[in-house]
Amino acid sequence: MCQLLAMNCNVPTDVCFSFAGFQARGGATDVHADGWGIAFFEDRGARVFLDPQPSCVSPVAELVRNYPIHSKNVVAHIRKATQGGVALENTHPFMRELWGRYWIFAHNGHLPDFVPVLDGQFTPVGETDSERAFCWLLQSLHRLFGRQPPAREALFDALHRLSLDLGARGVCNFLLSNGDCLVAHCSTRLSYIVRQAPFAVAHLCDQDLSIDFREVTNPDDRVAVIATVPLTDNERWEAMPRGSLWLFHDGAPVRQQATVAGPETPPT
Questions:
Q1: Candidates 2, 9, 56, 135; catalytic one
Q2: Tell me, what DSSP letter sits at residue 214?
Q3: Is 223 in contact with 195 (CB distance < 8 Å)?
Q4: Would you give the distance in Å from CA 39 to the centre of its chain?
Q5: Predicted structure pTM score
Q6: HEC per residue, 241-258
Q7: Is 2 a catalytic residue?
Q8: What is the pLDDT of residues 117-174, one digit of tens each?
Q9: In CATH, what number does 3-258 get?
């Protein structure tokens, strides 16, 4: 399966430390060698870097690792191909426009029989089930709300209903952001951590690299990092329950909803 990484913050922050560990998983410390990508929101704009090469040897990945782009929402993906060949058009994350905002989507899983009817407003460029699911999600949101973008809470409620459908069709861990908030769906495996004062030292699992966040943060900073597998070995990461949808805003989980049988539970 693929690897996912996201960051949601209350102030623009760089993802260089987390990305250093994540990059190694693309062919060095793990087997995900079929391409990688990362997207950074900057106000209403988005920078997207994609490369079908393994991230551990990608010159583009080295550029990103050493280029401290500051963003409040970041989505990254390392691919192990299941549907669609190793090609740029099949590399996550994917980007589309809806309601005058860019939307970014990355998926880890397998939806073998999901072939939705698409009306042409959002059309896949590549061959992946992931991009088809993204197009279907945006098409469904547009049909639900028309030309008027919903408030954040209404958006989450709609994505919850849609995730019930996706989750029933296969493995569907995904990250979705419009630059305002970040939504994460855990089908099988996702974890997160919220870093806030008092900050401490963190050490990566995949590289012998540490950072003292007390030296690079302000007391009011808050950063949520979401990953398929925890990136550090000396911090407490929270495992998301299987079959759950999460809403992150300003560096914190603000809602959690089950996408399998069971009641809604508050964020931990």
A1: 2
A2: G
A3: yes
A4: 9
A5: 0.93
A6: CCCEEEEEECCEEEEEEE
A7: yes
A8: 999 999 999 999 999 999 999 999 999 999 999 999 999 999 999 999 998 999 999 9
A9: 3.60.20.10
